[in-house]
Amino acid sequence: MKRRIAILGSTGSIGRQTLDVVRQHPDLFQIELLTANNSTELLISQAREFDANSVVICNESHYREVADALHPDGIKVFTGIQSACDLVAGDNIDIVVASMVGFSGLAPTVAAVKAGKVIALANKETLVAAGSVVMDLAEKHHAPILPVDSEHSAIFQCLLAAQGNALSRIHLTASGGPFRTWDRTRIEKATKDMALKHPNWNMGAKITIDSATMMNKGFEVIEAKWLFDVEPDRIHVVVHPESIIHSMVEFEDGAVIAQLGHPDMREPIQFAIGFPERLPLNNRKLDFAELGSLSFAEPDMDRFPCLALAFEAIRRGGNIPCVLNAANEAAVAAYLKDRIGFYDIAHIAEKCMAGADFVANPSLDDIFASNDWALARANELIDKWLY
Q1: pLDDT > 70? residue 201
Q2: pTM above 0.85, yes or no
Q3: Which ranges of the chain would DSSP assign to H, the alpha helix?
Q4: Phi and psi for 180 in degrees, rounded to 5?
Q5: CB contact set of 13 (below 8 Å; sequence gap of 6+)
Q6: Which residues pair with 250 in a beta bridge?
Q7: Whole-angstrom distance, CA of residue 317 vs CA of residue 314
Q8: C-alpha–C-alpha distance, residues 89 and 93, integer Å
Q9: Which residues pair with 281 in a beta bridge?
Q10: Which backbone phi and psi does 252 adopt, to 5 degrees?
Q11: 276 prior amide bond cis, ω within 30
């Protein structure tokens, strides 16, 4: 039988690449549900190409446009986040690809977890903001969470090769982003156009800025803690500008297993939705003679303070990672609108973390309340910021 797939965020980078994997294996997968927020034309095109059963346009102002376009095709159209939450729990769905950007992806992902679906997780915010809650729910409802991030997929694959042996350390690789070789004075003046020029990966604007600040790598540290049940002191970030080694796992005897491949998100996507099989993929294969050499370096947390903030957040625990995530989300949005400077992103996040009421064991309601507070506080700071 075909695996029936729902894609939360089908018009984003991960969603489009997931559909490319499905396009290469129409005999293995069936698209049941697609969701988007604003990209109506692409959503309509995707729904028609893959003969989706249903779509959700989360922005209600676009409902009539999408509904009228897809009515002749017999494709059901819904609107609003709650519709996405309801539909992912349906009996017609086996795998949910959680690729919505930002905190808005948490609610539908939680709904899918509660329904016991296989989760192909690409939405960082789900575990960054609510890691303890989501992992407890996944265990309770027997919902496997398979990582789609290239780094976490690499760690997962290395642990499969370890045949049950416990890890000693995780080496989480980072490209270093577009400002890897810049000094702090030059980085301070970086514009959004500079920050959006990632040297290796083609990603959406928000995650590309997070890569430039290295907040993205900090979020991946938090994700790794929850996915692999490892304390942050055993997670080592190493800058690897070629992005060929996607991450490594070190064991008690000092042996290290690494997963390698060219920067191509379709590889971890196919591994997650095809697991445990590896599917053929028309991607670029490694030529080691052509590579020649690979390089590594320690990250500089003075030039990239967001990485240090993420380590602080996960060590403090509770609702603090959620506060960090929300503050960063607001600050990045302001930076993309040229309202604040590059290092102001870290300053705003740090102030929100310092001012938050600590909740040691947050419920899902606590997480939503912390997110709302941090967004409001960050936007208040942005409105008053001098830059």
Answers
A1: no
A2: yes
A3: 13-24, 40-49, 63-70, 81-88, 106-114, 124-140, 150-161, 184-188, 192-195, 205-213, 215-228, 266-274, 288-291, 305-316, 320-336, 344-355, 364-384
A4: -55, -40
A5: 99, 202, 203, 204, 207, 265
A6: 169, 256
A7: 5
A8: 7
A9: none
A10: -60, -30
A11: yes
